[in-house]
Amino acid sequence: MAFKDLQEYIAALSLRRDLKKITVPVDPVLEITEIADRMVKRGGPALLFENAAGSPFPVAINLFGTLQRLCFALGVEDLDEIAKRVVGLIPQSPPDTFFEKMRFLVKLKEISGFQPRKVSAGPVQELVEKTPNLLRLPVLKCWPKDAGRFITLPLVVTRNPHTGQQNIGMYRIQIVSETKAIMHWHVHHDGAKNFRLHQAQGQDMEVAIVLGGDPATIYAATAPLPPGFDELLFAGFLRGEAVEVVRGTTVDLLLPAHGEFLIEGSVSATETMLEGPFGDHTGFYSGADNYPVITIKTITRKKTPIYPATIVGRPPMEDCYFGKATERIFLPLIRLQLSEVSDINLPCEGVFHNCVIVAIKKEYPGHARKVASALWGMGQMMFVKAIIIVDEDVDVQNLSEVAWKVLSSVDPERDTFMVKGPLDVLDHAAPQSIYGSKIGIDATRKLKEEGHLRPWPEEIKMAPEIKALVDKRWKEYGF
Fold first, then answer.
1. What letters, b where the CB count within 10 A reaches 16 and e where it falls short, cover 32-45?
2. Residue partners of 167: CB distance under 8 A and separation at least 6
3. Active site residues
4. Where are the beta strands (DSSP E) in 8-97?
5. Span 218-273, pLDDT tens digits
6. Which of 26, 180, 372, 437 qualifies as a FRET site for 130, CA 20 to 30 Å off?
7. What digits encode the pLDDT tens for the residues 291-345?
8. How distant, in Å, are the alpha carbons of 69, 227, 238 from that of 199?
9. Model confidence, pTM
10. Residue 195: CB partners within 8 Å, gap ≥ 6?
């Protein structure tokens, strides 16, 4: 099932009794965050604050705050269903016969059917605010030492001035005044790259900030897609139906037609302001720094929109489940290059860039080091601070089992190795920003060639026939 927009998804959550409506006045400054934080930590329902103090618009939050809810949002029972669809699109070897080439072309044609579909008008442009005012929105101040109010779930649309290729990313935005805001993006982000290309030409950059849209499009804005891959095409693939887009009223960009709000403006090539601090997804405040200023030209919206938000902070948080979606959906692409990888885990505690646990089918000495090195060379995997490699029989989703295997299988001097390279800008432990050391941990069973001269012990396991017997007689035992 493809949800048309955010409101259809929220209505479906209500029917599933997975939505709590709060009718009493609640303050977007800190109070909504405290309520939402308690709910996500408890695995509680999505929340709809119908009376956000100081704003005429309701606030929806914790919309994707459990694995089950995220699966429902993406129309699947299990995220691995999407991974299987991805596998179905990837040729396992280059097509060499006529019929194999034809099958591949058919698959490509199927993908092209998910290209965004342009329409002349959409709900997100039902009303045009001639005098735009960001301060009317129920934008959250999430944590006590935040520098102000931040839009936390925006779809930020930019365009490469050379290729014309659009990009959608999710970057926090600090509100300054009715028509001014600050764009926070990191140097490695595609939106920041597009901005630098405009800067080099001495040009401000057109930008659109979409609030809302269907769940697949919201997730797609967070996905680590290869350079040049259209997020809206990916969203169409996820939902099994093309995303409808409209041209902006004051910017030459194609934008999701079923958003709740559409904020159009430009990012200054020269003007910056101090942005932050901000309570970040690491669980710590990220510091203040200068980022480019956005000037708002217009705001369009639905007649009765809902303002979508999320909060980040000490994990687990709602963004952990977006991370799990990325883990499952992109595993086939990792295996396309590293066929020995059987599974990966991006644990919530690792906040995406601090830790990856990888199970491999080990075939030769140094195999774990080869895999770690290859992963550090793959896209946003370059930011990962710790890569732990285990054997394929280890359940990497079971952190207790992983801890046992790692602690019992590692000789620190032999099995740990360090490299230096780029780090996520939010890694406050690094001696300097965006660059530092990473650690690889080889927790696989060791071979003689790797310096382990003693026999590797056999793991304790019950005889299969006894396990089967006990399974058969389980109810006889009185359990």
1. bbebbbebbeeebb
2. 157, 158, 159, 160, 190, 191, 194, 231
3. 280
4. 19-22, 46-49, 59-61
5. 999 999 888 778 999 999 999 999 999 999 999 999 999 999 999 999 999 999 99
6. 26
7. 999 999 999 999 999 999 999 999 999 999 999 999 999 998 899 889 999 999 9
8. 41, 20, 34
9. 0.90
10. 158, 183, 185, 205, 267, 292
What does the alpha-carbon distance between residue 398 and residue 402 come to, in Å, rounded to a whole number? 6
Q: How far apart are CA 221 and CA 325, in angstroms?
A: 13
Three-state secondary structure call for residue 87: helix
Give the Cα separation of 330 and 343 in Å (integer).
11
Domains in the chain (CATH in brackets) are 6-308 (2.30.110.10), 338-450 (3.40.1670.10)
Which tokens is 354 given?
A: 């601090």
Cβ atoms of 264 and 142 within 8 Å: the answer is no
**Are 63 and 9 a contacting pair, CB within 8 Å?**
yes
Tokens read off for 192: 């920041």
Query: What are phi and psi for residue 288, nearest 5 degrees?
Result: -80, 145
How many angstroms separate the CA atoms of 337 and 378, rounded?
Answer: 10
Q: What is the rounded distance in angstroms from the CA atom of residue 76 to the CA atom of residue 224?
A: 20
Number of H helices, E strands in the chain: 13, 23
Distance CA 133, CA 127 (A): 14
